[in-house]
Specification:
Number of domains: 5
CATH class of the largest domain: Alpha Beta
Strand content: 25-35%
Strand order of the largest sheet: 18-17-23-14-15-22-19-20
Bound molecules: guanosine-5'-triphosphate, magnesium ion
Structural class: alpha+beta
Distance between the termini: 74 Å
Shape: elongated
Helix content: 25-40%
Number of helices: 16
Oligomer: single chain
Number of strands: 38
């Protein structure tokens, strides 16, 4: 394959709500450009993009796929993204490296939730967007209604470039108001015949042509002057104007296709070649240190890894975009984050799972390598000495959790390795080995996301896994001051064990007064790794316990604090004052004092009106206005406290605080409540008391399994 320079490279992502036809459109683009000789279908599981088993099974994309089409003199890199909201990580990853987004709309369903969610991401990335109204052959397709919805949601920048002459089964003609041509397709689609716009359509087409010119000229003074002078713009002026408007997001041109019948993909690709910005026309990427890196093939070599894939028959692949310089096969590059020198043994361009060797990839291009030693998504690869880091992709916070375990003994290590692989290829899937909960927790974007992980563990990694609800990291504290005593005495054979400890436990808070009636001789403050504090005071008088035993007492207290008396959860925010005790000249030792410390603490804690705390999350629910009522009335069932509701365009943003125990189910609840039209984001806020009844139940459950301490 020839080497393309930045002027002849276009990087686009196919975006949109699930089922809009992105994968089918990608297939049509590949077929039209001759990259593939047979057009696969999603239903048969034969498309280039949806090649994973799980995608074939679900008849829908799960992973972003990198592809390319050589159209005329250009190489169009295409990333087909999954539309289902759980896989948004791949959409964000794609937007980070492409220059233009192609928003595919379903001509029947119009603007959908996914369309709007993804639109927001394009806004955040300031990505130029083209809209494609697909499925114009569908019996209920309504192009104009779809355009109206798009204009309503995204603004009057939405401008028709093409429209279908007739929709439904007789669809075979696209009127293009940029070229002022009618494209007529044969029954199998493909290359259309160019004809004159039918008379009946001329007035409408001219009107739209003028609208197009006006919106282009409106944002460019020179063009406007020219237009006012001559009343027309020539093709080159129009092209330039369009490109500039696209880059500034001042226009969202609308196309129409029937991907299924292979109608319209070619003309769309020509537009991508001619109008969509080249990598050099977009603002250069800014490095973390703030310098700009233009897409110059002669510049210092720098590439960014945006995606990883691990497939049994393909190997471990890293996908990257070259931002500066030229990447050559056999070249050594340094990974800025891991410090490892990586040899780019073989370079590829890929179409789904098919790869093709290439020798060189210039700035602006997208490619892949296999078997790097220590390189991950978000790493920057650069030539030696050019120490540069590009900003990482910021993936969204996880929304749901599940605990994963192995059903087969001895497979724990294999499970660990497989989970590591899953996270490598999908950074929105997070793995936590929680010592506290004694569970491996998998965190993801939604139930479907977690189910996908399970499918991969079972089918790709051949593991027998078990999914259980994730435990909640409760905390325990106290509300009263209590003095406790414990005498530990054991006579077993020769040497005995003896220790007696008197301690006061109090709820700790910042700035509290010294313990009443006690003399403090030593203070130790521990910031607990799980939040909160332990303040440990030595208030011993007259040496009744030797100072050397105090650390052992504190150790005993800490031991109990890692497994609180109420539910076995971590204890936080207590002050412990050891003020009396007894020793035995022979039988007292550290072990004895540790036990006495632990037991004295436990007894005092239980008497000190213990309180169970639970993690509370700030939750931001984003929903269409008409769904506010349903969502609000459901929230009390989730023990959520509403903080406020704000408007955001067509959406309402409801802020509330919800216990984690409820949040784990909320993704599913919200989906069924709103047919997937609402989404949410959450972040940890605070620990708050668990309602008494629930706390009581959790305590009872714990006692069933609790073992005797001493
Ligand atoms: N009638 C008609 N159906 C289409 C067209 N394009 C796609 N479809 C059908 O719509 C369904 C979804 O198509 P996909 O290409 O998988 O859609 P997608 O946007 O990739 O969906 P996700 O990967 O789930 O986000 C499939 O059944 C396609 O056959 C079209 O132009 N016309
Ligand atoms: Mg798809």
């Amino acid at each position: 394959m020839k080497t393309y320079d930045a002027l002849h490279i276009r990087n686009v992502a196919l975006l949109g709500h699930a089922g809009a036809g992105k994968t089918t459109l990608a297939e049509a683009m590949l077929f039209e450009s001759g990259e593939i000789t047979r057009r696969g279908t999603v239903e048969e599981g034969t498309t280039t993009s949806d090649f994973h088993d799980i995608e074939r099974e679900r008849v829908s994309s799960v992973f972003g796929s990198v592809m390319f089409a050589e159209w005329r003199d250009y190489k169009i890199n295409i990333i087909d993204t999954p539309g289902y909201v759980d896989y948004v990580g791949d959409v964000i990853g794609a937007l980070r490296v492409v220059d233009t987004g192609i928003m595919v709309l379903d001509g029947h369903n119009g603007v959908e939730v996914g369309t709007e969610t993804i639109w927001k991401y394009t806004k955040q990335f300031q990505t130029p967007v083209i809209c494609v109204v697909n499925k114009t052959d569908h019996e209920h397709s309504n192009f104009w209604r779809t355009v109206e919805q798009a204009a309503d949601r995204f603004g009057r920048e939405v401008t028709v470039v093409q429209y279908p002459l007739k929709e439904g089964s007789t669809f075979n003609t696209i009127i293009d108001v940029l070229t002022m041509t009618a494209y007529v397709f044969g029954p199998d689609g493909g290359k259309p015949t160019k004809t004159e716009i039918p008379d009946a359509e001329k007035a409408r087409a001219s009107q739209l042509h003028n609208d197009l010119i006006e919106i282009i000229a409106e944002n460019d003074e020179d063009l406007m002057d020219h237009y006012l002078d001559k009343g027309e713009l020539n093709e080159e002026e129009m092209r330039k104007g369009l490109t500039h408007s696209l880059i500034k997001r001042e226009i969202v041109p609308v196309f129409c296709t029937s991907a299924k019948k292979n109608m319209g993909a070619g003309r769309l690709m020509t537009f991508i070649d001619v109008v969509v910005p080249a990598p050099t026309e977009m603002p250069p990427v800014t490095t973390i240190s703030g310098s700009e890196l233009p897409a110059d093939p002669k510049g210092k070599t720098c590439a960014f890894v945006f995606k990883a894939m691990s497939e049994a028959n393909v190997g471990e692949m890293s996908f990257f975009r070259v931002y500066s310089g030229t990447v050559k096969h056999g070249m050594d590059v340094v990974n800025e984050q891991t410090g490892v020198t990586e040899r780019l043994g073989q370079l590829y361009v890929v179409n789904g799972h098919k790869r093709q060797d290439v020798d060189t990839l210039e700035a602006g291009d997208i490619g892949a390598v296999v078997k790097l030693k220590n390189t991950h998504v978000n790493n920057t690869l650069h030539e030696k000495g050019f120490n540069t880091a590009l900003p990482p992709i910021e993936f969204p916070n996880p929304r749901v959790r599940i605990a994963v375990g192995s059903n087969r003994k001895g497979e724990e290590d294999k499970l660990g390795i497989a989970l590591h692989h899953l996270h490598e290829e999908d950074p929105t899937l997070i793995i936590e080995h929680s010592v506290e909960l004694n569970q491996i927790i998998l965190l993801g974007q939604g139930e479907m996301h977690l189910q996908t992980a399970k499918h991969r563990l079972v089918n790709r990694f051949k593991l027998d896994v078990d999914f259980q609800p994730a435990r909640v990291p409760y905390r325990e504290t106290i509300r009263k001051t209590v003095d406790g005593v414990y005498r530990h005495k054991k006579q077993s054979g020769g040497a005995g064990q003896f220790a007696e400890v008197h301690m006061r436990v109090e709820p700790y808070h910042e700035g509290m007064a010294a313990p009443n009636g006690l003399t403090v001789r030593g203070t130790e403050v521990t910031d607990l790794p799980w939040g909160g504090k332990l303040v440990f005071l030595n208030c011993i008088v007259g040496g009744v316990i030797e100072t050397r035993f105090l650390p052992a007492i504190m150790k005993g207290v800490m031991e109990k604090m890692t497994e609180g008396p109420v539910t076995g959860s971590y204890v936080r925010d207590v002050r412990v004052s050891v003020f009396d005790g007894k020793m035995h000249a022979v039988d007292s030792n550290e072990a004895a004092f540790k036990t006495a410390g632990r037991m004295a603490f436990k007894d005092a804690f239980i008497g000190a009106d213990p309180q169970l705390l639970e993690p509370i999350y700030n939750v931001k629910v984003i929903m269409p206005e008409e769904q506010v009522g349903d969502i609000m009335s459901d929230l009390p069932l989730r023990r959520a406290e509403i903080v406020g509701v704000d408007a955001d365009g067509h959406y309402q943003i409801l802020t509330c605080r919800m216990p984690l125990a409820e949040l784990d189910k909320y993704a599913t609840v919200l989906r069924s409540l709103t047919a997937g039209r609402a989404t949410y984001d959450s972040s940890f806020a605070d620990y708050l008391p668990v309602p008494p009844q629930l706390a009581q139940k959790l305590h009872q459950d714990y006692l069933v399994h609790a073992h005797d301490d001493e």
